[in-house]
Amino acid sequence: MKSTITTVIAAADNAARFPSASDLESVRGSMERAAARMEAAEKLAANYDSVAQEAVDAVYKVNPQGTLGRQPRVCDTEGKEKCKRDFVHYLRLINYALVTGGTGPLDELAINGAKEVYAALSIDPATYVYGLNTLRNRGCAPRDMSAQALAEYNAALDYVANSLG
Amino acid sequence: MGESVIQTALCPSGRASEVDPPPLHAPPPARAHFTPLLKSTFLMLDAFSRAATAADASGSFVGGSQLADLKAFVAAGNKRLDAVKAISTSASCIVTDSVAGMICENPGLTSPGGNCYSNRRMAACLRDGEIVLRYVAYALLAGDGSVLQDRCLNGLKETYAALGVPTGSMARAVAIMKACAVAHINGTNGDRGPQTTNNTITLGTTAKGDCSALTSEAASYFDAVSSSIS
């Protein structure tokens, strides 16, 4: 799984050189931002359930059928549960991305192939984009987490939304 | 010419051509099991991605104690970077000292018939020492031994066996390298007696910090090298 440090090391290894001053400098830069990322990851790990529920509620508010593009479900509880499960999945990967400081976990475990999977299941990814954008606009700096942490969290949400949309 | 040498080597009796051909309906010979190569980037982890990979295996979030560990890693981050810098900037000194030490203890290595006899072999020995130290530096930077294990040690023992490199000597050089690197990390590598040791660290008013966690981590990577080749 890629992270800032492994990317630096892979580049140094390709050139067969010891970590240079600029390598160490870029690792230091990523460590300086790490405190904010850790804070966001911690808050997300503690509250992911209600965050995902918020996204599901927002999706079902605009579209009572649930996921766009899908056949109407006979039992909409099931649809809601699956919708929430998917949001929890994205939030978990965002948690990993915040921990590693790169988009590697999101790319490897969610985004690569997402379009194909959603097309095959005839799910409109705009559903998830809508939910993620809701979360993006819900975060509030002093209430939920510090401003820097929120910036990192929002950047991760944006990345997923842009990749799916 | 080359072919006949190979045949003799494979079949000392020289009767290779007299072996009966396999019957037409014989099952095909068993193939060596083919393991697809994984992309090497996936096998390199650092402290952060190891936590994420471990959490992913159980589908859980990274939180609580794992995050506390990572916060401690970040808090001691500058110390770690200084340690990597100390090793990297003195790399050729550390490598040369350790190989020289290995040879001092066993002068037969550079005598005719020894494995460091001829400049070509000596150069190869120094180069290998530098490679090992480089991967230890990477592992120390990452806070995880996977890069060392995957890109350096994996198959090293077999390679040395095939090339006839005495792994005992190599392990000795690695042990000296460990002592050297630990001294460089602690800043106790002065060579002019106890009065001037630490002169690289205690310039000005900077106090000597506690690097015991980092030195033991670095030492564990050198130990991993020794145990994997011997």
Low-confidence stretches of chain A: none
Helix content of chain A: over 70%
Q: What count of structural domains of chain A?
A: 1
- The fraction of residues assigned to DSSP E strands of chain B is under 5%
Protein topology:
The complex is a heterodimer of chains A (165) and B (230).
Chain A: H1 4-14, H2 21-62, H3 76-100, H4 104-111, H5 114-120, H6 126-138, H7 141-144, H8 147-164
Helix pairs in contact in A: 1-2, 2-3, 2-6, 2-8, 3-4, 3-8, 6-8
Chain B: H1 2-10, H2 47-57, H3 64-75, H4 77-89, H5 91-105, H6 119-142, H7 146-153, H8 156-163, H9 167-186, H10 212-229
Helix pairs in contact in B: 4-6, 4-9, 5-6, 5-9, 6-7, 6-10, 9-10
Give structural notes.
The complex is a heterodimer of chains A (165) and B (230). Chain A has 165 residues and is an all-alpha fold. Chain A has a single domain (35-164), classed as Phycocyanins (Globin-like). Chain A has eight helices and no strands. Chain B has 230 residues and is mainly α. Chain B has a domain at 78-188 and 209-230: Phycocyanins (Globin-like, Orthogonal Bundle), CATH 1.10.490.20. Chain B contains ten helices and no strands. The longest helix of chain B is centred in the middle third of the chain and has 24 residues, at 119-142. Chain B is flat.
At a glance:
The complex is a heterodimer of chains A (165) and B (230). With 165 residues, chain A is mainly alpha-helical.
What labels describe this entry?
heterodimer; A: 165 residues; mainly alpha; Globin-like; 0% strand; B: 230 residues; 10 helices; flat
